[in-house]
Design a protein that fits this description.
Elements lengths: L1 H14 L4 E10 L9 E4 L4 E3 L4 H16 L5 E3 L2 E3 L13 E7 L11 E9 L7 H5 L4 E6 L3 H10 L4 E7 L13 E5 L15 E4 L4 H17 L5 E4 L3 H13 L4 H4 L2 E2 L12 H17 L5
Parallel strand pairs: 8-9, 8-11, 9-10, 11-12, 12-13
Antiparallel strand pairs: 1-2, 1-7, 2-3, 4-5, 6-7
Helix pairs in contact: 4-8
């Protein structure tokens, strides 16, 4: 997400001085480099963003420049020199166009899929709406715990399209150099913050205290009983920790079916390493796999 914000800022800065062509992946079928919504902005002398690289991207750059920007000539794109044959530019080209690209032998790629690209001419008047147009919808995520793993997770999660709430009961636990888009909350008792989480939130629980962890899990289960609107409840820890928690939560009146809604341990199974950075990558990957999985039949 940080890279995306930087790319949008670079696009806005460039548009203040020169026109550009926005190239977006409208739809994709089969095996393709990028998903629908991916974009790049083509200026006469530079490119911001990417739709996946390779010949598809080079051809799209050449088409954008030849139709909307200037007569093509040898220009550099990364480490690849792009030269296109000269064409006569229409006097008033249409501001928007959709083109279909089969990723087969004719394009020099063997992905086998099909990509539909939308080309749209942009000017300074389009700057105000860029962020809203190009930023994907963020999924809500609540992280309880400001320890080493929590900090590592924040660094990973801020690169993803999530709206992150970072919650801890302690004062002064959050770093001063917070990444953009992170909302911090000091809550005492910490489990009181559960009621105010956005509907559809994924919840990650890793406080400094097992007692706090237990109270947060219990608050999440009560919310699920009342509203059933949390997408994921994940608790850091071992199977032994979860066996202890199950016993204590059962004593509080939660059923086996309700307890089955808690994932513990969290992270991808089989990924070794207990360093905070390894755990952070593993947990983030688990969340992404859940979000990309097809809905149950």
């Amino acid at each position: 997400m940080i890279a995306l914000i930087d790319a949008i800022a670079a696009l806005a800065c460039g548009l203040a001085h020169a026109p550009a062509v926005l190239v977006r992946v409208q739809s994709a079928e089969g095996s393709v480099p990028r998903e629908a919504g991916a974009w790049m902005a083509v200026f006469e002398g530079q490119v911001v963003g990417t739709i996946g690289g390779g010949r598809l991207e080079l051809d799209a750059i050449a088409h954008a420049r030849s139709r909307w920007l200037a007569t093509p000539r040898g220009v550099a794109h990364g480490d690849v020199a792009l030269s296109a044959p000269a064409k006569t530019i229409p006097a008033d080209p249409a501001p928007c166009e959709t083109r279909r690209y089969p990723l087969g032998p004719s394009l020099g790629q063997c992905c086998g899929g099909v990509v539909h690209l939308v080309f749209e001419a942009l000017g300074p008047q389009d700057i105000p709406g860029l962020h809203e147009r190009l930023t994907p919808a963020r999924w809500p995520l609540a992280l309880f715990g400001g320890g080493h793993v929590g900090r590592a997770l924040v660094r990973v999660l801020t690169t993803l399209p999530c709206a992150l709430s970072w919650i801890d009961s302690r004062e002064g636990v959050f770093p001063d150099d917070l990444p953009a888009g992170v909302r911090c909350e000091q809550s005492e008792p910490v489990q009181a913050a559960v009621d105010d989480l956005a509907p559809g939130s994924a919840v990650l629980i890793m406080s400094f205290s097992h007692a706090e962890d237990l109270d947060i899990v219990a608050a999440c289960l009560r919310r699920q009983r009342a509203r059933a609107d949390l997408d994921f409840i994940g608790l850091i820890g071992s199977r032994t920790k979860w066996a202890t928690f199950r016993h204590r939560l059962s004593a509080r009146g939660f059923t086996d079916a309700e307890l089955a809604g808690v994932t513990c341990p969290i992270g991808l199974p089989g990924l070794r390493g207990k360093e905070p950075e390894v755990i952070a990558v593993s947990v983030a990957a688990q969340l992404l796999m859940r979000r990309s999985a097809p809905p149950p039949a």
